[in-house]
Amino acid sequence: MNVYDSERMADLLKPLGFTITELPEDADMVILNTCHIREKASEKVYSELGRIREYKEAKRLNNQNMVIAVAGCTAQAEGEEILRRAKYVDVIVGPQSYHRLPQILAEIERKTAVEEGPGRGILEIDFPEESKFDFLPETSEPQGISAFLSIQEGCDKFCHFCVVPYTRGAEYSRPVETVYEEACRLVEKGVQEITLLGQNVNAYHGTFSGGEGEVWTLGRLIQYLSKIQALKRIRYVTSHPADVNEEQINAHRDIEKLMPYLHLPIQSGSDRILKLMNRKHTTAYYTEIIEKLRSARPDIAFSSDFIVGYPGETDKDFEDTLELVKKVNFASAFSFKYSPRPGTPASMLDDQVSEEVKTERLARLQSLLFEQQIAFNQSLIGKSISILFEKQGRHPGQLVGRSPYLQSVYAEAATRLIGQCVDVLITHATQNSLTGTVMTQEKITI
Ligand code: SAH
Ligand code: SF4
Questions:
Q1: What residue owns the CA closest to ligand 1's atom 12?
Q2: What's the pLDDT at 64?
Q3: Same fold? 2-124, 132-375
Q4: Which among 10, 176, 209, 221 has most CB atoms closer than 10 A?
Q5: Where are the alpha helices (DSSP H) in 86-175?
Q6: Among 16, 107, 90, 5, CA closest to 49
């Protein structure tokens, strides 16, 4: 979602004359779009700011200005502290208030013009009444064949380990029509695959004004978007198990364009820990959903998120997680050591798990997950699967694209096949990618 937000910020600043530069020393403005989900991500902010400060200093010596802005969830959570610790930061904007950047820049320009001096950085982290989406300009030229489209933001679930409800704010769904229009614009500009985004994307409940304010679920929205003819593939991320509903499951059964791949984080395989986490689902419920989805769409594959070393997690709880993984069999997964986050209930618990135990558990879990990932990738060898080619590969004459299961697939193919779905016979698989041969005659004319 930060990728999506960063692109929107660039779009917002375009009418003011800004363009993207790859060279920080050239920049009139640097926006650091930050993540707060785990401590590691947040810590990076200060080291990055230190680096950016040097560019600002060099420009100042040349009588030029560089505006430094910090955006994203760390800005939202620690804005005051950032301004205190890094006095050279000019602007702090939160994930729901970055649409105000143009006004903020005008304010900075005015201050500089009347020589009020640098002053204190501007802090813009209130959750505004208005939705930022009503203020964002049309998406500019998308970067490629596949694009993100944010449809839902924020979260009301308050898992005890998580900062999202505090940093992204309350759950909000964009109206159906605005999502549809944005999707059409992306497709007109050559996008073939859209990934719908939301912190809890399947909690989507957007209004459809054409139906006198009807409220639509994610499944219904996907059904509607699938009617856009030139759109080839639809994905969505991230789903919460407790929000999975029949329309979502049926969408996987009925809509060919919806990829048979679902990221469904469970976090732990122990019901005791899930309860402590305030996750609102059990392992039995989770596996039941998996079964239903597998019956609806037999070729569907799953990925998930896991946290190891949640406060109070015993060896037995951890073994339960390994058992759950064996039972479900994931195509890929993300796994993390529990990271205490300021202000969350779990960070205040006494029975924190030692770093050593977390490290050991993470290694064991990851080795099992990697085994499953390799096995899944290898299971595709000898099969012909549809690949949406996105760009040139590593070698001349080679393209790289994505399988329905989001794997990177390399194959020799003509450049004009970029943006096309092509059947590829998979011949080789590693943990991270697949290699194959294009099944049509197209490959002859490289
Ligand atoms: N809404 C999604 C997840 C969003 S956060 C869901 O409920 O499943 C993305 C992932 O970051 C989470 O699934 C979790 O595995 C991880 N995460 C969040 N807070 C964390 C923390 N404090 N420590 C470690 N991992 C965390
Ligand atoms: Fe965080 Fe997801 Fe839980 Fe919401 S549902 S609090 S985003 S982990």
A1: 305
A2: 92
A3: no
A4: 221
A5: 101-113, 164-167
A6: 90
Ligand 2 centre to CA of 111 (Å) is: 40
- What value does the mean pLDDT take over residues 402-414? 97
Q: Judge if the beta carbon of residue 158 lies within 6 A of ligand 2.
A: yes
Starting at the earlier edge strand, list the strands of the sheet with 67-71: 29-34, 67-71, 91-93, 122-124
Architecture of the CATH domain 384-443: Beta Barrel (2.40)
What's the predicted TM-score (pTM) here? 0.95
What single string gives the DSSP state of each residue in 294-352?
HHH-TT-EEEEEEEES-TT--HHHHHHHHHHHHHH--SEEEEEE----TT-GGGG-S-P
Query: Whose CA is closest to atom 24 on ligand 1?
Result: 338
* Ligand 2 atom closest to residue 279's alpha carbon, by position in its atom list: 3
Select the CATH number that applies to the domain covering 132-375 from these four: 3.80.30.20, 3.90.230.10, 3.50.50.60, 3.40.50.11720.
3.80.30.20
| CB of 240 closer than 6 angstroms to any ligand 2 atom | yes
| Strand runs labelled E in 39-87 | 67-71
Among protein residues, the one with the nearest Cα to ligand 2's atom 5 is 157
**Whether residue 238 has its Cβ less than 6 Å from ligand 1:** yes
pLDDT band for position 55 (50/70/90)?
very high
The helix/strand/coil state of 215 is strand
- As a whole number, mean pLDDT of residues 95-118 equals 83
In eight-state DSSP terms, residue 88 is: T
Predicted confidence at residue 117, as pLDDT, reads 57
Residue 143's pLDDT is what? 74
Tokens representing 56 are 């600002």
The answer to whether the CB of 237 is under 6 A from ligand 2 is no
The domain segmentation of the chain, as residue ranges, is 2-124, 132-375, 384-443
Q: Is the dihedral of CA 315, 318, 324, 330 positive or negative?
A: negative
Q: How is domain 2-124 classified at the CATH fold level?
A: Rossmann fold (3.40.50)
- Is 441's pLDDT higher than 60? no
Closest by Cα among 103, 131, 147 to 7? 147
